[in-house]
Design goal:
alpha/beta; six-stranded mixed beta sheet; two-stranded antiparallel sheet; 8 strands; 33% helix; Histidine phosphatase family protein; phosphatase activity; dPGM_arch
Length: 209
């Protein structure tokens, strides 16, 4: 059994400026984002974490470094956790009320070069397959909103439209308990903390402080 704790990066300058970006080296964490990452590290100190994996994108990597400092673990960069490739939308600003994703799903908007939901789900599934084992361990994976939504929707047997209401806030915890790569129980989605109820479900290899 493997527990996979997905964490969305902390608040970044792109979040504040409402900029869409998959760039690797742009848009660092804000002061608020740094504090969020520190709080996430404190939450994770309740659990014995074996490894931390992270998207190479700066805002995620910074989040993973801060969490890793709290836990004494250096993060491992994994390209499969990267931000959704945004095609022609990269580095454009957006209006939250405009719902460009919904327009795209309804075929009212075509986005050239946008990574498909299926491709994003495939790489996140591949990540799960590579880390799940029988050793009762816990890993952390720092990623982004859409990739985390994609893997949650997959295990809930939802497509992009059906999973539209899934929300992954900054520095939140989405926790999967996996017996194997095809059998994962979702214990939390976008939670601000790791609750006592979730901790009680995390079995023998998880140490509660």
């Amino acid at each position: 059994m493997t527990v996979v704790i997905f964490i969305r990066h902390g608040q970044s300058t792109s979040n504040v400026s409402k900029i869409l970006s998959h760039d690797t080296n742009s848009y660092p964490l804000t002061e608020e984002g740094i504090m969020q990452a520190k709080e996430a590290g404190k939450e994770l100190s309740k659990i014995k974490v074996e490894k931390i994996y992270t998207s190479p994108v700066l805002r995620a990597y910074q989040t993973a470094l801060i969490i890793g400092e709290s836990l004494g673990i250096f993060p491992i960069v994994d390209e499969r956790l990267r931000e959704r490739y945004l095609g022609e939308l990269n580095n454009t600003t957006f209006d939250p009320s405009d719902h460009w994703k919904l327009k795209m799903l309804k075929k009212q908007l075509e986005v050239k070069g946008l990574e498909s939901w299926e491709d994003m789900t495939r790489r996140m599934r591949n990540f799960i397959e590579s880390v799940v084992n029988k050793n009762n361990n816990v890993i952390v994976a720092v990623s982004h909103s859409d990739p985390i939504r994609a893997i949650v929707a997959y295990f809930l047997k939802l497509d992009d439209i059906s999973g539209w209401g899934i929300r992954i806030p900054n520095a939140s915890f989405t926790i999967l308990k996996c017996n194997n790569a095809n059998s994962c129980e979702i214990l939390s989605i976008g939670s601000p903390v790791i609750t006592t109820q979730v901790l009680s479900k995390l079995n023998v290899n998880v140490k509660i402080s």
